[in-house]
Amino acid sequence: MRYLPLSDADRAEMLARIGIDSIDALFADIPQENRLSGDLPLPRHQGELAVERHLRALAGRNVPAASVPFFVGAGAYRHHVPATVDHLIQRSEFLTSYTPYQPEIAQGTLQMLFEFQTQVAALTGMEVANASMYDGSTAAAEAVLMAHRLTRRGKAVLSGGLHPHYAQVVRTVSSLGGHATVTLPPDVAAGEDLAAHIDDDTSCVVVQTPDVFGNLRDLRAVAEAAHARGALLVAVFTEAVSLGLVTPPGATGADIVVGEGQSIGNALNFGGPYVGLFATRTKYLRQMPGRLAGQTLDADGRRGFVLTLSAREQHIRREKATSNICTNSGLCALAFSIHATLLGSEGLRRLALVNHANAVALAEALATVGGVAVLNGTFFNEFTVRLPRAAADVVEELAGRGILAGVPVSRLLPDAGLDDLLLVASTELNTADDRAALADGLREVL
Amino acid sequence: MLNDQGRPTAPVRNGDDSDTRGTFTGNRALAQEEALIFEIGRVGTTGVDIEEPTAFAPRLGGLARQDGIGLPGLSEPEAVRHYVRLSQQNYGIDTGLFPLGSCTMKHNPRLNEALARLPGFADIHPLQPLSTVQGALALFDELSRWLRELTGAEAIALPPKAGAHGEFCGMAAIKAAIAARGEAATRTVVLVPDSAHGTNPATAALLGFSVRPVPARADGTVDAAAVAAALGPDVAAIMLTNPNTCGLFERDVRAIAHAVHEAGAFFYCDGANFNAIMGKVRPMDLGVDAMHLNLHKTFSTPHGGGGPGAGPVALSGRLAAFAPLPYLKQDGETFTLVEDEASAREAGAAPLGRLTAFHGQAGVFVRALAFMLSHGADGLRQASEDAVLNANYIRASLGNLMSVAFDRPTMHEVLFDDAWLKGTGVTTLDFAKALIDEGYHPMTVYFPLVVHGAMLVEPTESESKASLDLFIATLRDLAHSALAGETERFTGAPHYAPRSRLDETRAARQPVLRWAPPP
Which keywords accompany this UniProt record (chain A) (predicted)? Predict the structure, then answer.
């Protein structure tokens, strides 16, 4: 077996050093009646070629985004990632290192995390960011728990524009932990009155911008309303590229900003691994979940970095920790950070502008299709269209014609009576031909 | 000086460093100093060529960003050099033996990386029509089958993103099952042995449980009688790591499971140490109700400097109905995902809810399945046997010099304490740092907490005998040195790393968590 260096002769010598005759002696503490005698009913070992064939065949049964006109978003976005990013994250010393518990030989990871934290804070307009969470949705749930701790209250108000899966994650974590949530009805037009739902038990209001229907939301009024009642504003985004063009939540009064970082540096990967971004105000630092890299000095007075403020974390504080998170999304954070470094402010602004321009062009193209109505007043690179019949059926028919048209709202909200709505995303990867293909496809199937 | 973890830090360096004469650049040949991107990058510079779009009417309302964003940019050659230089300050498995106990740092096959990057896996969207991702769903099914066979589980919950997330999933399923019995108000306590990972009590607390500790016996394992004494009608579950964090198999596990079930509670097993028992025993046969599997440990998906991981959860028949959304369903030749609660309830399930926006760490699943297929049932069993053999070989080779915490055969990791260092002036931390100078990543230190000055060594199955022999010889040399009073080799260490010992107390007392322009 190519991954196992020991030979039978090695094994025999080692058993002799240990002073036993058989490897079985080392498993003697396992109850005899439960010990397996033969191999499990699974295939035997295979060479690289056979494994590759098998997995290539599985991969071949999927339709990759690059092979078709592709407009699927709703929380994960296909962007161009420079070849440099994937090359660098596969450097052995990044790829095969562990959590930087021994900082003297993990300065690469630690400095990268310090840079990542600074980038995330700048992008979101916040003061401090952590070293990543699993993804945007789990970051949102952690933000709500953090708001509970900070306010000593136990109820979160969730906007009807919050990604329904994010809302479900928040509700799951909240209800299991004994906390209350109020979820507003789906808010396609971004017209809900969140302030009316904030009371003295409310720890936080959770609002997404661009929201799941693509609308941009001005958070200032809801921030003021929340703060007036002693509650916090948790701002959520699922498309990090939008921050290159849209006012960041930190500038509009958010107390905690969480979001999905996948769209910078990371592939679609069928939903994971992604990278959760988490930023807040310095005054709330001690209640922040997750790892933090911090600057310090070594014994010779040179600048270096370590994991710090770990008295918040589970390995020190155990049941009193701010979270149970341990492993996070380090390598995805590295991909994010490298891509952000290659972009810089100017590259990110242009990337975001091209996304927006393409989405505007797509909205204009779709508006010419009979029976299709673009619902959004504002949007970044994704918007909602109303179709004359069930969007899920239309999407399936277009998939049959080699077009992945978007996400039917019914996939996210099956019982909301919004079956005729379709979320359509367009990034820098979409061409004029793609737009024409979608518009023509819709004309044909509608 | 002690840091906030109660460990000594920032030692005074003994004597001068005759071997570290300064250079003009601060570099030392291949060891390159590297500034922060904020110090070398420039606003307005970009390493990506993107054209401005032609004029169009934006739809941003009044919400266009007004500030300069604040991200410095680097050209591509500068960026490559920056990150390559940073990488060279890291130690990885590819660098050398990485005996970090509890972390299972084994070889990461590059085949798995290549396969995960196939467009059919990497370039598919979680919300594409299911008809266009049948291969990916078939992969979920195949991975689940392997994990079911290896654990004896009824069902596998794939969504959890890492081990701690898996713990949350498994314990949430238990909480849901208890609620379904109408006992949510009364069963509010979770038993957690003192030797447990910190994630266990933290997970229990997140779910609103209170934690009742269970002491270990003098031999490092949990006593079924102690568990029985701690059980009562208020107990929801026990969270037991097996093999435990001392590297020992909980030999009374069946009696413990029996007592737990008799008391109406559930048995959660922390599967962090599954690498010791693949193909040797199926945890569910021992009475486990739920157990997470760290795919990034046992099944070798790269740790990437702290993640991503994946923490699928094996569920017994008593808990399978409570698995989170989404879960896989097969209709003839076709796979579907059950993504919403109403459909699940219609099918008779009672999902605990949703734990993540999408389906879990699909990219990690590809790597883990490739690892399993490569090993096969025979290779996985052999891997566990080799991992256990390697740990016991180290134990047998060092036990007469360093003090083994528990005098019994160990599983895939071996635990030493610091009794043997008493009076030498050398601490566990010093010893670990000296190992860095010898070109090794240290073992896990000061964990588990139940042993004073713990050193937990996990060699994994990836090491050759020659590699182990050199590691053993190195440890023996260091041990002789410590016992001979050569403290400078330890208290000033590391001498040859990119940094000497870093001041963790300073970092915590004066937190600098992001770059700021100099005043």
Answer: Oxidoreductase
